[in-house]
Amino acid sequence: MEKPKYKRVVLKLSGEALAGEQGFGINPAIIQSIAKQIKEVAELGVEIAVVVGGGNIWRGKTGSEMGMDRATADYMGMLATVMNSLALQDSLEHLGVETRVQTSIEMRQVAEPYIRRRAIRHLEKKRVVIFAAGTGNPYFSTDTTAALRAAEIEADVILMAKNNVDGVYSADPKIDENAVKYDELSYLDVIKQGLGVMDSTASSLCMDNDIPLIVFSIMEEGNIKRAVLGENIGTIVRGK
Q: For residues 108 and 110, what is the distance between their CA atoms, to the nearest angstrom?
């Protein structure tokens, strides 16, 4: 049997990853593909927590730029992540994977409230836990949520699944054909060079808590499993 390198992981999915090429909303084929990949990893005995963004439905930053109150726009973004989380939960449960959604904003009719000890207990029972509604606070991204939850549940690694790039580059590879892909970086490099892997708050939180990050493409099936097995895919970002 294949031996995973990591025992407990946080999988960070962008909202755009769920939209696929349509760029908006939830693409059923994409979400089913992601659910199958998560199931593959769960079958290895790995404990998986998932943080999903909401950019395929609403972006708080966009609302703010349109003149909306920033806090209101961010709360709308948090609700978008709940919709994505419920869709992913439904796909996973159709595959027979026990799943729990925990929200940072209480909505008990929809999901459990986020309680750290309960989340860890679910993971120990091999349930997939999906953390929704960000941190519950405006001005914080879902990247920061992933870093915070990874620190709280003592995850071994954050797996950052991207839908439009297969790692970290020195520049946008779609614009600059001379962009160089990095195999390994430090969080200090990411912050100093402004590489845009995750925002500076999330990067600092990962660096301070020594949580490694693997950035890879979600579009190639089986990549989540490859990352968990320790195969050399994408870019790994380590402490200092």
A: 5
Is there a binding annotation on residue 25? no
pLDDT per residue as tens digits for the range 85-131: 999 999 999 999 999 999 999 999 999 999 999 999 999 999 999 99
Tokens of 218: 């979600």
Tell whether 27 is in a known binding site. no
235 is in an annotated binding site: no
Known binding residue 45? Answer is no
The structural domains of the chain, ordered by start, are: 8-238 (3.40.1160.10)
Is 201 annotated as belonging to a binding site?
A: no
Q: C-alpha dihedral over 228, 195, 82, 118, to 10 degrees?
A: 50
Q: Tokens 């593909």 belong to which residue?
A: 33
Do residues 4 and 46 touch, judged by C-beta distance below 8 A? yes
Q: Could you tell me whether strands 128-132 and 47-52 are parallel, antiparallel, or unpaired per DSSP bridges? A: parallel
Residue 53 assigned ligand-binding role:
no
Torsion of CA 148, 150, 153, 159, to 10 degrees: 160
Q: What is the pLDDT of residues 33-81, one digit of tens each?
A: 999 999 999 999 999 999 999 999 998 888 888 899 999 999 999 999 9
What is the SS3 assignment for 19? helix
Question: Is 185 assigned to a binding site?
Answer: no
> How do residues 5-34 score in pLDDT, each as one tens digit?
999 999 999 998 898 888 789 999 999 999
Work out whether the CA dihedral 6, 217, 165, 145 comes out positive or negative.
negative
Q: List residues bridging with 160 in a β-sheet.
A: 12, 215
User: Are 2 and 229 in contact, with CB atoms under 8 Å apart?
Assistant: yes
CA 68 to chain centre: 26
